[in-house]
Specification:
Length: about 500
């Protein structure tokens, strides 16, 4: 087996390959007035001390602006320098803010503040009650009244494995077999494609409003939506070009996700994945890294063929986010490892970013501009859903067993990682903090950490409450979309995420 240092070099060398492909592709395909940009950061043209929030609304003839004082932290890009970041932009490129600075990352009692989008929505819809305000996502009887999410998109996902296998076919048999492994034999729950399909159906029930010319909106915020001659409705959605592109986005998202799993398993020297051998154990590290590279390359080509450069910019950022999360995991300073917000930002980069970027991209492919209320609600749902999913995953790492999870239990601690349950226990027991800061490297550290965790009467409950908080926020964002069967199925899917046992 290659040593871990070489494995990491192989991993990080693979991501720029995909990003380079996207840059080359988008430079040759000017689908919209937006120039390609591969980074998502704060809008340098706006004051950092006071942001102005704008939106498109059916009842308004112009953008409504609400001044809300909000100071954004000055965080340097993780992958590139600030200077390099600035050089990559022009006046028309998308200057985007990380989702964890747009939406509420912590509950109010832990220092979190209400998201900009909720404040704006409440202002524009004064007196309107969110339809899911009192929904109990852990009430099995109540959730049974909502549409079953996987059943609702069963027909759409039935040919998914076959079509995605065809899309990643290669003339090299070993490469082709390795790349197809998770699509044919161990395809998992298809969680991300299900979200994309349901969100596409939910967006089809919305009304696309024309972009508004407002001095409070940057040009890129008022654009980005795909244009089609025939309006899409729930009745004609499935047979439309809009649906075809949204379905292809679901395949792209799964390719990127699977590529990250293959690369992560090489990095972590994992033995199993989804209840079977990891790809690098079946073949070799070299084949696994190349298979991941190949999936990213294919995803990049298919992404360009969606013919929307705004979506290319957003989804390219998902690739950058995966690298950012891996770097955070490897290189975060010891003192930051005990902070719950550092853990959540890393979880955003590694898990939630791909989901929330895909959800906003679905809205853009459905015709909505970037700054629309619908597109923002879609991203906010994906952000909270992704964090709820990861936090629940981390809880199961302590409470589940390997035969149910499909991967070894306590895998995070074996990698030196501290997740929500351990971090909440450390708030009670200061003795845990040195163990966390040295990544459980000393003999007996992991056992001692577990003893403190299970000695705590509230740590696990606080972790579960954090997952529930993000699930509730995800459903709250869905309440800003018009009523539809798909929207309600997403509510039930959110419930599944925080009540699952594997």
């Amino acid at each position: 087996m290659l040593n871990s240092t070489l494995s990491r070099c192989q991993y990080f060398s693979s991501i720029p390959l995909a990003l380079t492909l996207i840059l080359l592709i988008t430079s040759c395909n000017s689908f919209t007035p937006l120039a390609p940009s591969l980074h998502r950061r704060h809008n340098a043209l706006r004051p950092q001390s006071s942001l102005l929030y704008s939106t498109h609304h059916d009842d308004l003839s112009s953008s409504t602006t609400i001044p809300i004082k909000k100071t954004l932290p000055n965080r340097n890009p993780i992958v590139v320098s600030s200077e390099a970041e600035a050089m990559s932009h022009s006046e028309t490129t998308m200057k985007l803010t990380p989702s964890y600075d747009l939406f509420q990352i912590l509950p109010a009692e832990e220092g979190g503040t209400t998201s900009h989008s909720k404040l704006l929505y409440d202002h524009l819809n004064e007196g309107k009650v969110n339809p899911f305000e009192n929904v109990d996502l852990k009430n099995e009887k109540e959730m049974a009244k909502f549409p079953e999410p996987f059943g609702l998109v069963k027909e759409e996902l039935k040919p998914f494995s076959d079509s995605i296998s065809e899309l990643v076919s290669s003339d090299q048999p070993i490469l082709s077999m390795a790349a197809k492994h998770f699509f044919e034999k161990r395809h998992g729950k298809r969680f991300r494609p299900t979200i994309v399909q349901l969100m596409a159906k939910a967006v089809a029930a919305t009304t696309v409003t024309p972009p508004l010319d407002s001095p409070q909106l940057e040009k890129w915020e008022s654009s980005g939506g795909s244009h089609f001659p025939t309006p899409v409705t729930p009745l004609n959605h499935k047979s439309s070009e809009v649906w075809r592109r949204q379905a292809q986005l679901g395949q792209i998202v799964e390719m990127i996700h699977v590529a990250s799993l293959i690369h992560d398993d090489v990095l972590d020297e994992a033995e199993t994945r989804r209840g079977g051998d990891a790809v690098h154990k079946l073949y070799s590290n070299k084949v696994a890294v190349l298979a991941g590279d190949y999936l990213l390359a294919r995803a990049s080509v298919l992404l360009a063929r969606l013919e929307n450069t705004a979506v290319v910019q957003i989804m390219a950022t998902a690739l950058e986010s995966l690298v950012s999360g891996e770097i955070m995991q490897l290189k975060s300073p010891p003192e930051s490892l005990v902070e719950i917000e550092t853990y959540l930002r890393k979880s955003y980069y590694k898990t939630a970013s791909l989901i929330c970027y895909a959800c906003r991209s679905v809205a853009l492919l459905g015709g909505h501009c970037y700054g629309s209320e619908v597109a923002t609600a879609c991203e906010e749902y994906g952000f909270h859903m992704g964090l709820a999913y990861q936090i629940q995953d981390d809880i199961l790492d302590f409470t589940g067993v390997a035969s149910v999870l499909g991967k070894p239990a306590l895998a995070d601690m074996d990698l030196g990682l501290s997740t929500a349950p351990i971090l909440y226990a450390a708030e009670e027991f200061d003795q845990l903090k040195p163990l966390i800061m040295r990544r459980f490297k000393n003999k007996g550290d992991k056992q001692l950490a577990l003893e403190y965790l299970f000695k705590s009467p509230i740590a696990m409950q606080k972790a579960e409450n954090l997952a529930t908080f993000h699930a509730d926020k995800a459903v709250e964002a869905l309440g800003r979309l018009p009523e539809s069967e798909a929207r309600d199925a997403l509510v039930r899917l959110t419930s599944v995420v925080i009540t699952r046992k594997k």
